[in-house]
Amino acid sequence: MAIERTLSIVKPSAVKDNHIGGILAKLEAAGLRIIAAKMLRLTPTQAGNFYDVHRARPFFQELVDFMTSGPILVQALEGENAIAKNRDVMGATDPAKAAPGTIRAEFGNNISENAVHGSDAADTATAEIAFFFATSELCSR
Ligand code: CDP
Ligand code: MG
């Protein structure tokens, strides 16, 4: 296994419900290291560009509306097998189908408000980290 980096986002519903600490604790407990983090509010244009792959999907506008509804916490994670490990800790997209103990099972409200985003592959992880962070902001440790 290799040391990888991936992008994680605490979505607006989870920030609003004060679950930042609970979510980051699960990521750290899984052995992932936070190497950059910031809170921000996406504009509709930014949210649309971030989720560009989903532009033709029926849930796209709802997704953009949700992701711009309040501040998010964005973090870059580093660790062994970080991309798959983060997806494992997140759980399935639909919180109702997510395994017990996963972030989405514990903190997700529904398939839209599912608490977190996580990159799904090496190429998207690289692009998504660059979407939010300059290389100089990544504190590898
Ligand atoms: O986030 P993940 O990679 O697990 O799922 P996705 O298929 O890439 O979808 C991106 C996001 O769109 C999800 O996390 C949901 O917030 C939203 N979504 C939705 O609102 N309704 C769906 N039927 C599927 C996804
Ligand atoms: Mg995805």
Notable traits:
20% strand, globular, binds magnesium ion, 7 helices, 141 residues, alpha+beta, 4 strands, binds cytidine-5'-diphosphate
Topology of this protein?
Layout: E1 3-10, H1 12-16, H2 20-29, E2 33-40, H3 44-50, H4 60-67, E3 72-80, H5 82-90, H6 103-107, E4 116-118, H7 122-132
Return residue spans where pLDDT drops below 50 for at least 5 consecutive residues. none
Helix-strand makeup class: alpha+beta
Q: Would you count the extended β strands for me?
A: 4
Number of helices: 7
Helix content: 25-40%
Q: How would you spell out the order of helices and strands?
A: EHHEHHEHHEH
Give a list of the ligands.
cytidine-5'-diphosphate, magnesium ion
Give the rounded overall mean pLDDT.
98
The outline comes out as: globular
The multimeric state of the shown protein is single chain
Short description:
By secondary structure, this protein is of the alpha+beta class. The chain contains 7 helices and 4 strands; from the N terminus they run βααβααβααβα. The chain is globular and about 35 Å long.
Characterization of the model:
- The protein has 141 residues and is α+β, with helices and mostly antiparallel strands.
- It is built from seven helices and four strands; from the N terminus they run E-H-H-E-H-H-E-H-H-E-H.
- It has a four-stranded antiparallel β-sheet, sandwiched between helices.
- The radius of gyration is 14 Å and the shape is globular.
- The two termini are 17 Å apart.
- The model has no long low-confidence stretch (mean pLDDT 98).
- The site of cytidine-5'-diphosphate (CDP) has 10 residues, from helix 4.
- Cytidine-5'-diphosphate binds at residues 54, 59, 62-63, 93, 111-112, 114, 117, 120.
